[in-house]
Write a structure and sequence with these properties.
The chain is α/β, with parallel strands linked by helices. It folds into three domains: 43 residues, 434 Repressor (Amino-terminal Domain) (Orthogonal Bundle); 130 residues, Response regulator (Rossmann fold); 144 residues, Rossmann fold. It contains twelve helices and twelve strands. The termini are far apart.
Length: 346
């Protein structure tokens, strides 16, 4: 049995017309503040929920947004989704979340499914594997609003919201150098996405500014398509580093998963951190403080990135004129220093 309150019910109870109730709930300027508040209070008290589908049909919109991310098993992604959810809910949009699992093929299928379902726009953080964005570009040219977040690419001309990865990597590497570390290895991912190249370039710039040569053998990239492969790649990379004649005294890691797993593997292999090797990396894990030892991190404003990306997409969906000046917004990262990168008395 459906006992939900309708517009008709509210109109009858408050002795107002249905159109007045509708306008009040949609925050119309035609309705006075007092009436608006009376309607909102009644609606809230009686758990009124608007019929999204009816509203969508009337407006020619579904009031739903497709969100494509690499994986839900990721602290940064989870925090970004919280930001997206907050804005979407506030603006009466529902979000449909799909994960690409870092596969170009799965990502394409996700986009196709969302588009077929009549979404009003797409928020996407592209998969590491993806190199062909022509399908997404063709949908965008056909009128579907698209906004990129977290992982940005040049192939799509739209609003883009990310973190200042170059600066974050630069500051993390500089922190290690200031603490006396000179042989700094860098673990990244094998992708064309700017998130990886910006972090690599920030690392290289810090070395160059400090007069330290960038040694090719200290750069390794990992396959990110699955947890087992990533763990194997990481363990192999660490064993390789520690077998070098001139082995690294610190590692700067470029992603959430690499950073936390690297610490676990170093502990498993019996290395003391930071005495044998120091570690700092990009991760938003709330457990950084509880790790052994507490992990120094580059923290990204993930919630804010999600919020801003959702705001940008909704503004595109609701825009009447299509002359938009697209923006690329890079939010600042923050180096959080803990025990894993402290200076060691030699």
């Amino acid at each position: 049995m459906n006992n939900s309150v309708t517009l008709k019910d509210i109109a009858k109870a408050l002795n107002l017309s249905i159109s007045t109730i509708s306008k009040a709930l949609n925050d119309s300027h035609e309705i006075g503040a007092e009436t608006k508040q009376k309607v909102l209070d009644y609606a809230k008290k009686h758990h009124y929920t608007p019929n999204r589908m009816a509203k969508g049909l009337k407006e020619g919109k579904s009031r739903s947004i497709g969100v494509v991310v690499c994986s839900l098993d990721n602290n940064v992604i989870a925090q970004m989704l919280d930001g997206i959810h907050k804005v979407s809910t506030d603006k009466s949009y529902q979000i449909i979340i799909m994960q690409s699992k870092e596969s170009e093929k799965i990502e394409s299928a996700c986009i196709e499914l969302l588009y077929a379902g009549g979404i009003d726009g797409i928020l996407i953080s592209p998969a590491y594997e993806t190199i062909d964005f022509s399908y997404l570009v063709s949908l965008q040219k056909g009128g579907l609003p698209v906004v990129l977040f977290d992982r940005l690419i040049d192939q799509i001309h739209t609003h883009k919201v990310g973190a200042d990865n170059f600066k974050g990597a630069y500051e993390a590497t500089m922190h290690l150098i200031h603490n006396g570390y000179k042989n700094i290895a860098h673990l990244n991912t094998n992708t064309i996405l700017s998130i990886a190249t910006d972090r690599l370039n920030g690392y290289k710039q810090a070395l160059a500014d400090s007069g330290i040569a960038c040694r090719q053998e200290l750069l390794r990239s990992c396959n990110y398509t699955g947890a087992t492969t990533l763990n194997e790649n990481l363990e192999e990379a660490i064993r390789y580093y520690m077998s070098l004649k001139d082995k690294p005294d610190a590692i700067f890691t470029a992603t959430d998963q690499i950073s936390t797993r690297c610490l676990v593997i170093l502990n498993k292999l019996g290395y003391k951190i930071p005495e044998d090797i120091a570690l700092i990396g990009f991760t938003n894990t709330e457990l950084a403080e509880a790790m052994n030892p507490p992990l120094s991190t580059v923290h990204q404003p993930a919630f804010e990135m999600g919020q801003l990306a959702a705001e940008k997409l909704i503004s595109l969906i609701e825009k009447k004129n299509h002359d938009v000046d697209f923006e690329t917004i890079m939010l600042p990262t923050e180096v959080r220093v803990r025990a894993s990168s402290q200076a060691v008395k030699k």
